[in-house]
Design goal:
Helices cover about 70% and strands about 0% of the residues. The chain is an all-alpha fold. It has one domain (about 1-35, about 40-55, about 90-175). The radius of gyration is 17 Å and the shape is globular.
């Protein structure tokens, strides 16, 4: 029962963390766009914005979550997503992943309180490193990490710190209520 409560609290924390992460990325994108010169368009294209994951971009400007949605749809449903369907599928994958990672976090917090170290940022740093920097490129959902400027990696890392802080705050509140 304790693990279920922890996972539930973590799921809600992950949902809130994903939402806050999107807001933060949008803000970073707007700041980056204001600082960019027209002749720096290439670097701007790889910076966060438009509610897209900060670095997880693959072919063109598609976020890794959209690429994953497309691959799953094609392999499982034998259906190529339309642009309108991608607008629904991409955030569904983003929020679904955030909630799944949050549920795992909430369950871990019940069994190993050290998982909440640094108010959730240690866990979210590991999610960034293992997810964004290792798994996403290995699954060919993005280009290799070396093909992105350091600024892009830092933006992604900062976004994950925001996720962790938010997820832990919400997890604690929900867990206390359960």
């Amino acid at each position: 029962m304790r693990l279920c409560k922890g996972a539930t609290a973590g799921t809600l924390g992950g949902l809130a963390g994903s939402w806050t992460m999107n807001l933060f990325q949008t803000l970073l994108g707007k700041i980056s766009a204001k600082k960019s010169e027209p002749d720096q368009q290439t670097e701007q294209d790889e910076s966060p914005g438009d509610n897209r994951p900060a670095r997880s971009q693959s072919q063109g400007n598609e976020p890794a979550t959209a690429v994953l949605a497309e691959k799953v749809s094609e392999r499982v449903l034998h259906h190529r997503l339309t642009e309108e369907e991608k607008k629904i599928a991409e955030p569904a994958v983003h929020y679904g992943y955030g909630m799944l990672v949050g549920a795992l976090y909430g369950a871990l917090a019940e069994e190993m309180p050290v998982a909440t170290a640094c108010y959730g940022t240690l866990y979210s740093s590991a999610v960034w490193l293992l997810g964004d920097e290792v798994a996403v490129p290995m699954l060919k959902l993005s280009k290799p990490p070396t093909q992105y400027p350091p600024k892009t990696h830092l933006s992604a890392f900062a976004s994950h710190l925001v996720y962790g802080l938010t997820a832990e705050s919400v997890r604690r509140m929900v867990r206390a209520a359960l």
